[in-house]
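Page 42, continued from yesterday. The earlier attempt failed because a stray header line got pasted into the input along with the sequence. Redoing it now with the clean sequence only.
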Amino acid sequence: MSEPTNALPSAPLATIGISTYNRADGYLSEALRSALRQTYSNLEIIVSDNCSQDHTEELVRSFRDPRIRYFRQARNLGVNGNFNFCLEQARGSYFLLLHDDDLIDPDFIQVCMDAVGDKEVGVIRTGTRRIDSRGHVLSESRNRVGGRSTAEFILGWFRRETSIYFCSMMYNTRRLIEIGGFQSKTDLFQDAVAAVRLASRFGRVDVPDVKASFRRHDANNGTTARVADWCEDSLYLLDVMCEEAPEEAEHIRQAGMPYFCRKNYRQARSIPSRIRRLSAYWMVFRTFEYSYSPWSFVYSRARPVKRARSIVRRALPQRA
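This time it went through. Structure tokens are written below.
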């Protein structure tokens, strides 16, 4: 498919990669529409169908847009393999990996490319909103680490002053390929690993505004093995953070251990079996050197519910 005829010669090509599997009857059409509605003109969209068993190809081709380059894999490459396939096909200077259930605002690419201007940086980042399965906004997180060092960017993530999601980051295509693409120990924090390495080595640009939507939905229940993988990747990411910001390595590790402990409790919380869930909590507690108690985590989750119930009780008329 040819590139759009209205592309401005002075505007560098940008790439949106959409890795998809069996989402033709789900969120894929929404994700693809959000990519096609971009106000930035010099754009290509790569859709890599990871050997879907549904009508993904028919859906993608129905859009009939020359900016779309569709690939169907003959065999399933695995999630991360498909991510890196999208990257390998990218022709743009900067690359966004958009999951097939996430969304970007119409001006996302334009805002990012305007922010970077003529500079070359490793990564461009915006704020992120979290939406539910129906698209309702759950929360928003502005990107409040602009102008800070790599160490302060990392510590700002721990302090919830910024968030790290694929949908709100544009990576420098050439530099990302140079560092080996998307990879981490268990390929769960590969987005954060790439962001930290590229920011440290080549710099970053931070857009404070919320311009992308990460979707939370219950596609799968958690398992103890899955939590173990998240724990392993968390420790790997923490090591990468310390390596890329050695001047603050001790501070980063001290703040990171309880942060990742809490983050992995949230993974364990989705395990249906109570016994296995408690076992996973204990595994997380040990993995992160007893830095944050699971009982504190459970109590912190229960407090908002108790507070809401108390408010409701006080609002109800009292019986005589």
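Notes: Residues 1-8, 305-320 have pLDDT under 50 and may be disordered.
Reminder to self: strip header lines before submitting.
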